[in-house]
Amino acid sequence: MAVAREDLLTQQIELNMGPQHPSTHGVYRALLTLDGEKVVKVENIIGYLHRGIEKLAEDRTYTQVIPYTDRLDYLAGMLNNLGYVQAVEKLMGIAVPERAEYLRIIMAELSRIASHMIMVASMALDVSGWTAWFPPFRERERILDLFEMTCGSRLTVSYMRIGGVAADIPPGFLPALEAFLNDLPGMIAEMNGLITGNEIFKARCQGVGKIDLETALAYGISGPNLRACGLPFDLRKARPYGIYDRFEFDVPTLNNGDSYDRFVIRLLEMEQSARIIRQAMAGLPDGSVMAKVPRVIKPPRGEVYHQIEGAKGILGFYLVSDGGNKPYRLHIHSPSFVNLGALPRITEGGNIQDFVVNIASIDIVLGEVDR
Amino acid sequence: MTGLIEELQRLFPGLQGEEGGDMPALVVPADQLLAVMKELKERQGFNFLADITAVDYKNDEQIEMVYHLLAVPEARELRVKVNLNRRHPEVPSLTAIWPAADVQEREVYDLMGVAFPGHPNLKRILCPDDFTGHPLRKDFRLKAEEGRE
What is the ipTM of this complex? Predict the structure, then answer.
C-alpha cells in the first residue's frame, strides 16, 4: 500500500551545523531547524571573535588604528588598510604621491587575488575534497611572498600609511611580480580544470542557493556575490577612488545568482585584477612614497564615509572627528557581516548539504563579521 | 542633488538639509524616518542601504543615528541622520523597507543601546546575551580602565 507523503509523521529538529568551512572554526555556529533534509530556518550565531575594534579605535591615535584594520578581513589586509587611510586622507585633504598611489593599486589587487584564491580553495574543499584545495593555496603563497618582501609581513601587513605607504618596493619585487602574473593564467586554467568544470562540483553548486538581483540588493549583498546576480556594480568603476579611473578593466557578471556563479565570478575577477596590476606596473612613476603629513594627525571636526570595493564587497569606513588626535567614532561597515546576514534567505528551503555549499559561496571571514 | 533635498523638504516639512560635507545629508525627525526612507527608495532610486550606525554625543545628551544610502548602479550617495534622546533612544526599524537593516540594527541595538520598534528579532548579535551595558556608549567603562583614572 502506498503511503502519501503528507501522511508521514515528521518532526522538526534543531542541528548545530559545522564548523566545516575553514573560516568558521570556533568562531561561527549555524543553528539549523530541519524538517528531514530540508532547512526550514537558519540562525547565524556570531560574536565569538568580537574584539571591539571600533571601541579600541576611540582610544588610539589615527595612525595607531592602522594595525587593527589588518585584523578585520585578515585575508585581504591591504584592502582594509587602504579603505581606512583613504578615509582619514579624505577628512584631512591629504594628497598622496603618485608612486604611492600606484603601489597601493598593485598591493590592493594582489590582495584581492589572494582573497579570491582562498575562497576558491575553501569552496572546492567543502564541496569536493582536499586535492582541489592545494593549488589555490600554493599560488597564494607567492602573493604573500611579495608582501613579505615589501613590508616584512604576510597577513597583517600594515603597509598603508596616512599619506602614502610604509616602504618602497625592494629591487626583486617587480621581476617576481612579473613572473607571478605570467604564471597566473596557467594557475587559473588549472583551477578551472580541477574544479570549475568538474561534473560533481557543478551538480552540487548549479542552481543551489539562488538569489535574484532585486532581493540581493534589498539584503545589502555587494561585491562578487552581487555581480553573480547580473549587475555590473563595482565601486572601482562606479565611483572610482584613488587612481582606479586610470585603468582599463572589465566588471565581470554572471546571471544565475547561484553558488556556482558566485564561485566562477571570482576566477574571472582574478584575471581583471591581473590586468590592472600590469597597467600599474607599466605606469609606475619614480618619486617619494610618502606625502608630508603632520607628525600628529589631527583632522578637522567633521565626518566622512569612505567606501571601497573590498574583496568581499563594499567596505565602508565612517569616521567622525572632534578635532582631537583620536577618532571620536570609527564605524566599519564590513561586507561579510551583511552578506552573512543574507545567508538564511539564500539557504532556507534548500537541503542540508546545500547549506555547506552556500556558506562557502558567499565567502565570509569572521574577523570582518565580528570586528 | 540640492534639488533632491528641496523636493524632500516640500514633501516633509520637518526635514533639514546639511551642506558642505563629503556627501549630501538630511536630518529627519524620528517619526518621519519611515516615510522619508520609503520615498527615497521607491521614488528617488536609493535602492541600496549601504550602512546603519550610531554615534554617541554624550555631552549633547544625544545619540545620532546615521544611515548611508546608495543609488545603484550610478553610485549616488546620501546620508540620513536622526537625532535621538540619549536616555530613551528609539527609532522605527527599516527592516520592512530593506531586509539589510536586520543585522545592522541588531548591531546598533547591541553596542549602542538603541531600540528599533518593528524589528522582527531585536536581540544582541555580537555580545553574549547576558552582557550588561552597551560598549560603544561613551560612558561605558572597560574593566581594564577601572582604577586607571
Answer: 0.91
